[in-house]
Amino acid sequence: MSISTALAAKIVWLLGIVAWYVIRYPFERRAKRVRVVTDRRSLLDRVGLVSAVLGMAVLPAIYVFTGFPDTADYPARWWAVVLGAAIVVAGLWTFRRSHKELGRNWSITLEIRDEHRLISSGPYALVRHPMYTSFFLIALGQLFLLPNWFAGPIGLVGFAVLFFVRVAKEERMMLETFGPQYTTYMGRTKRLIPYIY
Q1: Which residues cross the membrane (predicted)?
Q2: Distance of alpha carbon 158 from its chain centroid, rounded?
């Protein structure tokens, strides 16, 4: 029995989401044990997080499991599945490396933790926000994996809302916390894409 291209794409997308959760879970558990000293969570921050979850998990999952909205489908291509899978794998690798480098500093929201330090190694040597880079890559992979004019690109929309709602606030918080050290770091790194942006 041969597997259809569209089904293979959906399976790859689903495996990517499961892998994302498996990577994040232990860091989320550990983070709860480290005291928060500065908390900049806001309603707008929550809007960004909800947008990302809707665009990169909930709405595509509805499509994967129900086919809705099938009127927006287009033919799945093997080359797109392979390309999408490779992009998602790159995103997951970046996601894991970002968590590993941050260690006890990691937080799902805008927080500074006890004994927080500026991380500038690993993927942080190239970009200031590699966690967002990983989300961008996973959302881009979704675009290639889900052959649907709604479910494919909605991940990029969710990512964009999260990124543009939070990144400036996050950088202000880091400047307040680390001062000239962060200013120097900003001068030698890009925000999201190495050497470009």
Answers
A1: 6-23, 43-66, 78-95, 126-144, 150-168
A2: 10
